[in-house]
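G., before I forget:
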Amino acid sequence: MRKTNRIKTPILLVVLVLGISASAPTPAQYTAIPLQSWTEGPVKKAILDFVTRVTRQDGPDFIPLRDRVAVFDNDGTLWPEQPIVQVAFMQAKIKEMAAQDPSLYEKQPYKAALNGDLAYLMQAGAPAMMELLAATEANMSDEQFTASVKTFFKSARHPKLGVPYAQTAYQPMLEVFDYLRANGFQIWICTGGGIDFLRVISWDAYQVPPERVIGSSIQKEFVEKDGKSVLWRKAQIQSINDKNEKPVNISLHIGQRPVFTAGNVRSGGDIAMLEYSQGRAGPSFQLVINHDDAEREFAYREKDTSTLTAAKTHNWNVVSMKNDWKTVFAQHGAAQKKAQ
Amino acid sequence: MRKTNRIKTPILLVVLVLGISASAPTPAQYTAIPLQSWTEGPVKKAILDFVTRVTRQDGPDFIPLRDRVAVFDNDGTLWPEQPIVQVAFMQAKIKEMAAQDPSLYEKQPYKAALNGDLAYLMQAGAPAMMELLAATEANMSDEQFTASVKTFFKSARHPKLGVPYAQTAYQPMLEVFDYLRANGFQIWICTGGGIDFLRVISWDAYQVPPERVIGSSIQKEFVEKDGKSVLWRKAQIQSINDKNEKPVNISLHIGQRPVFTAGNVRSGGDIAMLEYSQGRAGPSFQLVINHDDAEREFAYREKDTSTLTAAKTHNWNVVSMKNDWKTVFAQHGAAQKKAQ
């Protein structure tokens, strides 16, 4: 539904301008006018120039199809990170548990999770987080976890936007996906969040299949339960896909340095991934989203300004959501928001 | 070159039979006569029947495109495992080192590796293997390792077949790849060998891109060396992709149970992966290669017969190389062999 709404206007425009039949719209027709939600400015121009340059078959910077790998952080880069969706999931699960066992309202760390008491959770640290992770994401099979996440996404709504999380993707970034795909790029997501969590929604939100999602993971064991072989999710971290672990996991999943990478300003979590891409032999492109749009999304800064400092040092492209994006969310999301 | 040779005859046949122009051969035309190197028999019939059944749009067993995941073991399933290619690489690297430092000929475990003294290596166990791994695959950047493997594959030849390793793929399995691809399947390799080792050759040997290779891995660290950010390969195992770890890593890389899996009889290493596939909700297919062809390839058995026992219990399809395969290696390989 949403996708149709998004695409309608550009296709119509192309049809009018080129005088072609509307009967068979293709990505190529759509992307004839790429990045429509981006204002004319240096960042939009940089993206268009880069992709044009590296896809020119006889050009000096031509990148063959097999190397056209694009990697995007998720929270804060592709959809909002206020709240972090996986934390909303965890809270919803603990609320369900507390409905069965009200004593959890008085028991830490569940009490803190239920009240959104971040101060307590920060101070309680890793053991508390492991207990919450174990309660909501471990000690069950992969299939049980996936079913639990699916149930969450069916009814959950973004508290500010009022729409399902799958409809909170940034429209300009979806257009970057469309444009890169039309130019032969593979789209990957490299999230600090859980790999199995995001995989449940990555297709609906971004048309990214599960095998193109990289993320934090817990340890699993192949065991027999009730006469069936399952992967059992253990309450032990395998990889926290943040900062320097992002390049490590990109290498594990993709096997080469990405050409195009995008992250965002918040915790410095994407700096290593952006550097890793820039270190490839040959041209590359780095994009950093800066959240400076309190009216349409959120405005927040990074305490140590490490990402913006790195962006300046390494000449990365910084997106001002306020100035570079004409639209933040797709039409459908906006309509739902007004209807509230 | 080899691919062209393989495809020529079927396309010609299709052109003659259907009376269509040869100007634009497509996979669909080629696979109109699939699995040509397979003898008519129960295994070939089972593959054809299965793929036909799950791709029939209005059938009860239809599997949507996004779920069509096929996973293949490598050594002994897609190419010979005598010798194991990565061991040949290790020996070649140690030979290079010994040319610089002849004392290695008298120093264990290098001496054993140089002499192919498996008895010593088995007895010396993990510490010896880690030392050899460190010497040949660790303490260098990803880029340095890849370059080293590329150099090896340029000159290395299979000792019995006399051709480059990229040309030792089993022709019947390449035809399974072609047939599955033409029917919308993703082809993945899940090897007990090193993920970064196989990725160097997976395209040339099988037309499988690096991101579709799953394997054993060592730990890496994102560090700065000589002013450049690199992934540094540490002499520490991260995952040994064998037995029960295969499903764990398939889940990590793909995020769903495969529909089609193939392994081979030797060490029981593929049983868990085959079970994992069979445990999916919906139809699945399991293939087991049995090496019983001393004349054209090799003949060997499994000590505990665990794989064949599991195949019988679970009703998996067992390939007799001797009886089910008309051809083992592609024409180009055979021609080179005779030319020796």
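DSSP finds 14 helices and eight strands in chain A. Chain A touches chain B at residues 66, 69, 142, 186, 195-196, 199, 203, 209-211, 213, 217, 220-222, 228-231, 244-245, 247-248, 251-256, 272, 275-276, 278-279 (CB under 8 Å).

More on Monday.
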